[in-house]
Amino acid sequence: MILTNIESVPGRQIVQHFGLVQGSTIRAKHFGRDFAAGLKNIVGGELKGYTELLQESRAEATSRMIEQATSLGANAVVNVRFTTSSVAQGASEILAYGTAVRVE
Asked: Which pTM was predicted?
């Protein structure tokens, strides 16, 4: 599956358009990560637990988007975007979305 954040795939022609595809996941903070992040806020630095949580969430959302595109017969997703929103205290949704297409 080709993924790109632009409107086309360079060197390829879009021959079929399947429409919007998306994948999402909702993740909650883990107490251990939250505790470590609180300590890190005092001394500064990267919040590695949160970085890992967001990386895992983006990967899961992307995988679900790819599954949906594949089921439609697409071999590429163009205009891929990510967004996040808070759905409850301590829980956030990561959404990956784009346009499923077939390219040659």
From this structure: 0.84
